[in-house]
Amino acid sequence: MALIKSVRGFTPEIGENVYLADNATVIGDVVIGDDSSIWFNTVLRGDVNSIRIGKRVNIQDGTVIHTLYEKSVAEIDDDVSIGHNVTIHGAKIEKGALIGMNAVVLDHAVVGEGALVAAGSVVLGGTKVEPGCIYGGTPAKFIKKMDPEQSKEINRKIARNYLMYAGWYKEE
Fold first, then answer.
1. How many other C-beta atoms lie within 10 A of the C-beta of residue 102?
2. Residue ranges in the chain modelled with pLDDT below 50
3. Nearest-5° angle of CA 27, CA 20, CA 39?
4. Would you say the pTM of this structure is higher than 0.90?
């Protein structure tokens, strides 16, 4: 069973039909929207500021989401996919974005709607990743504009797949 821990008077709020892997950790001021999935070894540490996760978000294995005390919050909008071993620290990820495996997104960065951050990239604090664009590298820079329909379809497919995968683990 996932570790769900209150701290500083904040207890995580978990929506309906949310899958929490057995060793996921959710602490403090965290709200998770309906139909989301939090996978193995993921840590959502809302001890120093808030973390808000939208609906149909999949946060894959080994990801860490945290914030700066009194300075940044983490916001993940609906229909976002966050790849394996990602670090998000006090950033905003807008609707339908995809964060590739092992990427790092730092405080006050904004990843625009439908954008893709390539695997292994580092999005520096304060960076604005344009909606519908691919950014990659260290530090992450603009690579190209994506076809809006292609972007939506990629993220819809991943989101649907993760809803299906989560169903495999739910106890009957």
1. 17
2. none
3. 95
4. yes
